[in-house]
């Protein structure tokens, strides 16, 4: 069936809420690291649905899991045991710090649940008063009313007040500032080991070690948000493995089921035992479809040792981007881990994103001037070379 792009765009403008600044492209198919639009044009994807389709667009195990589950059962209530949910929970716990998991539908839901888990645990131990959540400057943790208040962007919060209280910010990677804000009223400190929306900033080992020390001192939770940087994206299955410091709670989503909506909260120790029936729940979270595909996705990463491949490709991409930095003064920095890389510019990046799209390459800009490169793990060195060559041409046209 042919799709009329103009009709789709006009209907969207008429019937969908205006929450996205969309590009005038309608994708209808894809394979590996390639997307195909309604007019048959192919694009090389360096965004992966914002770190979602890590295994690309044609992974056979993911497709088989979807087909199998669609042919059997898609959903039942969590009032009953769900075999693929149990299997995925077991697999995640076996390959992480955690002892128990809870499944939901998105990253924002996972972070919302993690906040509840930390506060509930503090309440059960100490009663009311120990409820502050300390987040980092530059963070992004979601758009629900609670997660907006641990997301460091005032524009996202404007117009949604009054806001819930008990949320504090401290500068990322600033140990002295962290020591001043964490104390007896702290229920949790939440950190992205590699900030994504905030500009591709990795956490410093010393800062993370201090966060671990302070949360142990004040008996509060250390939460790692690995929604964007987890699931192999950094060259380790989980980003915290680069630092050998374990959290008490970790949140996952995005790539956990390669595009099927799912989120997860992983926890250990007392935090894993905090929730009781009625304390938290979800209708759709952890259903058969989502967790079957999540299991297939995780197995594909583990069985094929894809983290080593991500590390190698990430090093190759980073070196290529750094070669552009040597050539162009408008590039301030190239940073990141694995296949989650950012290029900081002296100019705004939105026009560069548009020009790269016209050249059939999908990249992204965050914080106004940081180009973000998050390709599927299926990206090839030849595709990286082609993208870097196209980017070089765009930068040359800037005449800087």
UniProtKB/TrEMBL annotation:
The keyword Cytoplasm applies. Pfam families: Aminotran_3. The modification N6-(pyridoxal phosphate)lysine is found at residue 254. It comes from the Bacteria. Belongs to the class-III pyridoxal-phosphate-dependent aminotransferase family. ArgD subfamily. Keywords: Amino-acid biosynthesis, Aminotransferase, Arginine biosynthesis, Cytoplasm, Pyridoxal phosphate, Transferase. GO terms for cellular component: cytoplasm. Pathway: Amino-acid biosynthesis; L-arginine biosynthesis; N(2)-acetyl-L-ornithine from L-glutamate: step 4/4. Its EC number is 2.6.1.11. This is Acetylornithine aminotransferase. It is found in: Cytoplasm. May also have succinyldiaminopimelate aminotransferase activity, thus carrying out the corresponding step in lysine biosynthesis. InterPro entries: AcOrn/SuccOrn_fam, Aminotrans_3, Aminotrans_3_PPA_site, Class-III_PLP-dep_AT, PyrdxlP-dep_Trfase, PyrdxlP-dep_Trfase_major, PyrdxlP-dep_Trfase_small. CDD domains: OAT_like. One of its GO terms (biological process) is L-arginine biosynthetic process. Its cofactor is pyridoxal 5'-phosphate. Homodimer. The keyword Cytoplasm applies. One of its GO terms (molecular function) is pyridoxal phosphate binding.
């Amino acid at each position: 069936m042919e799709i009329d792009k103009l009709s789709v765009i006009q209907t969207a403008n008429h019937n969908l809420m205006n929450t996205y600044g969309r590009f005038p492209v309608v994708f209808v198919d894809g394979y590996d690291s390639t997307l195909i639009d309604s007019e048959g044009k192919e694009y090389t994807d360096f965004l992966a649905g914002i770190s979602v389709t890590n295994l690309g667009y044609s992974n056979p195990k993911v497709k088989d899991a979807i087909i199998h589950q669609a042919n059997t059962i898609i959903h039942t209530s969590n009032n009953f045991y769900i075999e693929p949910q149990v299997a995925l929970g077991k697999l995640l716990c076996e390959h992480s710090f955690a002892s128990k998991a809870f499944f939901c539908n998105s990253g924002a839901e996972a972070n919302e649940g993690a906040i509840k888990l930390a506060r509930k645990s503090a309440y059960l131990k100490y009663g009311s008063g120990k409820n502050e959540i300390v987040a980092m400057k530059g963070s992004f943790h979601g758009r629900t009313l609670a997660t907006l208040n641990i997301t460091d962007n005032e524009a996202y919060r404007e117009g949604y007040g009054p806001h819930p209280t008990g949320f504090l910010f401290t500068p990322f990677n600033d140990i002295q500032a962290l020591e001043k804000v964490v104390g007896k009223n702290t229920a949790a400190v939440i950190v992205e080991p590699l900030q994504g929306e905030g500009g591709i900033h990795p956490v410093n080992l010393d800062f993370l070690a201090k966060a671990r020390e302070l949360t142990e001192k004040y008996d509060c939770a250390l939460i790692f948000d690995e929604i964007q940087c987890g699931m192999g994206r950094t060259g380790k299955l989980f980003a915290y493995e680069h630092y050998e410091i374990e959290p008490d709670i970790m949140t996952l989503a995005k790539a956990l089921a390669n595009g099927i909506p799912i989120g997860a909260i992983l926890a250990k120790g007392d935090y894993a035992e905090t929730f009781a029936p009625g304390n938290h729940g979800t209708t759709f979270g952890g259903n058969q479809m989502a967790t079957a595909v999540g299991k297939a996705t995780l197995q594909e990463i583990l069985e094929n040792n894809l983290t080593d491949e991500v590390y190698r490709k990430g090093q190759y991409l980073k070196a290529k981007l750094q070669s552009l930095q040597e050539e162009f003064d408008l590039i301030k920095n190239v940073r990141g881990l694995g296949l989650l890389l950012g290029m900081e510019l002296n100019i705004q990046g939105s026009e560069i994103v548009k020009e790269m799209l016209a050249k059939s390459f999908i990249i992204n800009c965050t914080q106004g001037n940081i180009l973000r490169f998050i390709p599927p793990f299926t990206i090839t060195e030849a595709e990286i070379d082609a993208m870097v060559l196209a980017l070089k041409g765009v930068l040359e046209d800037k005449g800087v």
